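DM from R.C. (forwarded with permission)

"hey, sorry to bug you on a friday — could you get me a structure for this? deadline for the figure draft is monday and I only need the backbone to look sensible"
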Amino acid sequence: TSNDPKIKKVWKKYPEEMNIKSKRLSDITTEDIFDYHGAISSKSKYSANRMVRLVRKYINYAVRKNQFKGKNPASIPKNELNEEMKDHLDYYSTANMKKIIKACERLRKQPDKRVACNGILAALLCGGRPPSEAFNLTVDQLDLEKKLIHYKKSKVGQWSRPINDTMVNHLKFILKLRSDGDPVHYYPKEDLRHKYLFPNCRMGQLRRTKRGLKPCKLKHIKEVRKVWKEIKKLAGVEDRDIKSLRHTFAVFCVSCGVSLRALQKMLGHASIQTTEIYAAADPEFLKSESNKISAGFAA
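My reply, with the result:
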């Protein structure tokens, strides 16, 4: 039920394979699972693996309830599924990260780009997922004295993210903009955008949708692709998706010597194995660590 044109294209190309949920459990064969996996793989190989695991869980549940007998058709060996990367390699080096920060600080001087730039900076400085953990931040989530951001709903439920002094100073900068009545960061109390740190200036404006012109209801920013593209161009860095900022933060923390357990709390991962995937070892960091080993042998 996605509106993504790429997913719809896959659906139209593989109508029978993608319609596995309409089949009875007893009708599903291993060939069906492979066709299903292959269809989703054309969109995302990682999602394809996860969906096969999900189908396997459903059928295992049916086996426990005595609703299915025989071998689970979704029990496919890992070596027959798509190979997944052990490390996330879509991150920026420390040097390029600093260029991005400077580009954001330059562009935010323009009022129409200020909120987006500050939101992107917040996502980078705390390692948050931009749309769900940074762009929708509200004033009541902040506890700057204890250096925490409180989240009510997330992938891991209710939790509190520890933040560093740089992020605290960035949040104080935004709060000062609000107290000074900045035209793009501050809205009066009667406005629904008042509590959001990164309010959406287009809220209430008409936009064209599939059902005609509709007023925008989003209270905080979400879509920042144009500004992000301009930031990358100004910084002179390679083209990466905005979610790479989260991976960049993780790699930077590891390079600074932050322990994986502390990084797990900062990123909000339920499992430390997920943190290990995010925290890829930067080549420059490996080089510096190797120098430490050499110095130890010399001593």
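R.C.: lifesaver. The radius of gyration is 23 Å.
me: no worries. The first strand starts at residue 142 and ends at 143.
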